[in-house]
Amino acid sequence: MQWHRPSARLLALRRLQVAIATVAAVVAAVAATGASALGLTLGGVALVAGGATTYFQRRRFLAWGYAERDDDLLVRRGVMFSRLSVVPYGRMQFIDVTAGPFERSFGLATVRMHTAAAASDARIPGLPHEEASRLRDRLAELGEAQAAGI
Amino acid sequence: MSDADGWNRLHPLSPVVRGGRATIAIAILFLPTVFGGGRDQMRTLVDLVVVAVLVALGFVSWIVTRWRVNGDDLQIETGVLRRQSLRFPLSQVQAIDVVRPGLARLFRVAELRLRMGGASGKSARLAYLHEREVEPLRDRLLALARGAPVGEASPPVVEHHLLATVPTSRLVASILVSDVGIAAELVLLGLVLGIVYAPSAAAGIASGGAVWILSVFQLVWRRFNQEYRLSVAEVPDGLLLRGGLVALTSETIRPGRVQAVRLVEPMAWRLLGWCRLEVDIAGRQRSEGEGQAQRRALRTILPVGTPALADELLDHLLPERPRELSPPPRRVRWKSPLRYPLLGWGRTPTCVVTRSGRLRRATNWVPLEKVQSLRRVEGPVQRRLRLASVHVDTAGRSVHAVIRDRDVGEADAVLEELVASARAARKAA
Q: Under an 8 A CB cutoff, do A81 and B429 touch?
């Protein structure tokens, strides 16, 4: 069994998102209060929070993983709450591939597996387009071969 | 009423019944106009125009709606501006309900509702049909769902094998000591005390909080109305549930469509040795446009009963269920002191049981062939204590079975074992 990771570009994307949010927060804090002591303190807090988030983003990125087995797909995620989902191919009802504006500019996409259970929620973000399409086609094919009724 | 292509229309009084409370309100509002006479001419005219418009709208909604059974599908066409043609494959039916609200009983009509599986979980509604067509149609649809040939003659008379029914006195007593019941009693007690000691203050509170007070009593009433004389019977097409006081319902759950079974024992009930048994099926439970009486989170098959009776029903639903539960490691006491005494789980090759709850004990059974996915989850506190939980996801909407707080090693092993036995159960099914 081999674990795969999302593309390293996902980490770059997350860092960019954190950086944009941090810069926006600092600018807002300074602009709203003028360049007073309070504004600078708030801006500093935002910077520290941004730095900490960057660190956690790295750990979260490393926690993502998926593995294709003979009968099911394993997806793991999460640092604080670590989750491992086992989704049998035969239970997949449909597979979504979505890419938001940020993801698209990095050439990435999110693959989401849907079963009849609302709680299943298995998704893999940050896959390169080719890998996302390959995974989607493969899952659809295996799902069709092993489909089981509700 | 069917035409050449097999299309049928609903009962002509359908719009009146579908109007429900609005119809009653309009009738009451216009009674003075009809019988009072000699009042303001202008107002009478306006009233008549309003009624005429409503009648015309109702007629249009009736004339554009038609349905037929075509091969293995039920087709419904409706809508004026946005024409809808709906097709419901009968092989995917999870359950069929016959619902009769109070007004429908007055006009001798009934609604037929087909619960479909699938992610969107839509239900097909035929509201309303004449009382005498409904039951034959239901039996015919169930036969088609079973895969019987289309042209089959009317199905044989169904023999009922009654499994359980609830005496009204016990139902009343159980509602009185249930959570909503106790809330209603406290409200009532407060009002009575208030009237005795401080009438003016009580009047103020009663008028201010009237909505809340009414809603509490409505909850109690709804529960009573739904569960009054509920009986469970075994029929060839599955389980037949019937009951209701004002709104009569009769639901048929097809065999093998039960996603999970739940036994609930609230604290007050446990002292009295009572429990409630519910089953969960696929499909959305709350659909738009359904009457309040028909919205229910789960299908209760035994509103209140003794554990022995519940056991008997469980034997019918899940003959191979696990009997013994293994308790969690002792260190779970530090994480969930209230839950600890109730936690436990067990399994057989085809079924999993989990038990949890703080004050209210809930036991969930999930047949392994119904498992959609499995998840192992480990939170920060659990990691400190070397614990993990395994979630068992089904297509049902309400029962969520979790093997909570097991040792990490056990959880990993359980996950692998359950994946394997769920696969085996799925292949065997």
A: no
pTM of the prediction?
Answer: 0.79
SS3 A121: coil
Maximum separation of any 2 CA atoms in chain B, in Å: 86
For the stretch B225-282, pLDDT in tens is: 888 888 888 887 788 888 888 878 888 888 788 889 999 999 888 888 999 998 888 7
For the B8-146 domain, the top CATH level (class) is mainly beta
Pick the more confident residue, B382 or A92: B382
- In Å, how far is A102's CA from the nearest CA of chain B? 29
**CB–CB of A83 and B373 under 8 A?**
no
Nearest chain B CA: its distance from A120 CA (Å): 6
- The pair phi, psi for residue A66, each rounded to 5°, is -145, 150
Q: Is pLDDT larger for residue B326 or for residue B397?
A: B326
CATH code, residues B318-428: 2.30.29
Q: Which residues contact B111 (CB under 8 A, 6 or more apart)?
A: B97, B98, B99, B100, B101, B104, B125, B126, B127, B128, B129
The segment(s) of chain B belonging to CATH 2.30.29.30 are: 8-146
